[in-house]
Write a structure and sequence with these properties.
single chain; mainly alpha; 4 helices; 41% helix
Amino acid sequence: MALSLPTDTAHLNYQSRQYELFDRPIVKGIDRRKMFITIIVALAWFIPLALLGVSPLWRFGPTLYLAPVAAVVILGTRVDDSGRMAMIGWYDRILCRLPSRRSVIDNPVLDYSQHVPHRLSLNVVVRLSHREGPSAAQSRGSS
């Protein structure tokens, strides 16, 4: 279950509304975030394919042009229980594996010339338990 914070406001989730298309009413428009992500992913994929000389009219051209873009957009814009897109998790994993951009602040007293940053790992063990209220225990005991 997603945690709803008081900062979650409706104006953060703008959507383009199209009320009629071909004289038929449309209830919900396209989510603008998904539309912009689709455009960015498509441009980032179409330009290298065009530079490599892959023709969209070739036998496998439409598949090579459209299938990867559709897969990235569909899988990347899925939201989890907290409301975060899967793309944000992908971006976090990439940033975690890249070296840090922060430089070590030198201390004139200490020698940091041999300092090597180490990746930390954190193992968390959680035990989930379910507490029953007094009404649930009484109803179970009386039956």
